[in-house]
């Protein structure tokens, strides 16, 4: 398992993997395949620049997972973990844990205080992974935007001082 940080010029690679994730797990994301499939190259490049950092898991030479981390809007001392996904054929090989570890390492290197994420309430494997990595519920709950507002989620946080993923 190898983890790579994407650069702006790798936007076609990011696009392929992100659209695959949106097709595979449509109810796990706040947006849809239909929306992002129509983005132009500049929109994809913006997702790989500025405050966004995206890591890709590579297994046997194939991209098999991704996660994005960024400073939280309105909370510049904290970071967020977004868009976590691992392909079915790569589950059980440590890709998810390696991606979370890369996100945590990035946040620590940026001197962020905490790393937040939202997880769908019925995604037991993800909840278990995040708990094993030290993320705890904050008590904040919510729903996805329509038309998926029937899906509930909750927030988790990892304090970055003295914790490990």
UniProtKB/TrEMBL annotation:
Keyword Transferase: yes
Source superkingdom: Bacteria
Alphabetized Gene3D superfamilies for the sequence: 3.40.630.30
UniProt domain N-acetyltransferase: residue ranges: 1-158
Keywords: Transferase
RNA-binding recorded as keyword: no
Pfam annotation, one family: Acetyltransf_1
GO molecular function: N-acetyltransferase activity
InterPro entries, alphabetized: Acyl_CoA_acyltransferase, GNAT_dom, NAT_camello-type
Name recorded for this polypeptide: Putative acetyltransferase YhhY
Organism of origin: Tritonibacter multivorans
Lineage: Bacteria, Pseudomonadati, Pseudomonadota, Alphaproteobacteria, Rhodobacterales
């Amino acid at each position: 398992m190898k983890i790579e940080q994407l650069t702006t010029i790798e936007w076609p690679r990011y696009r392929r993997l992100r659209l695959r994730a949106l097709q595979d797990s449509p109810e796990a994301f706040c947006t849809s395949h239909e929306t992002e499939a129509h983005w132009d190259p500049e929109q994809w490049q913006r997702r790989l620049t500025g405050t966004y950092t995206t890591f890709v898991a590579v297994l046997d030479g194939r991209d098999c997972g991704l996660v994005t981390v960024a400073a939280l809007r309105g909370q510049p001392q904290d970071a967020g973990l977004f868009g976590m996904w691992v392909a079915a054929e790569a589950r059980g090989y440590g890709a998810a844990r390696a991606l979370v570890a890369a996100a945590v390492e990035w946040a620590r290197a940026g001197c962020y205080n905490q790393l937040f994420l939202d997880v769908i309430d019925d995604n037991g494997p993800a909840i278990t992974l995040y708990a094993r990595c030290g993320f705890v519920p904050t008590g904040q709950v919510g729903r996805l935007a329509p038309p998926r507002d029937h899906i509930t989620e909750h927030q988790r946080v990892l304090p970055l001082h003295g914790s490990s993923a």
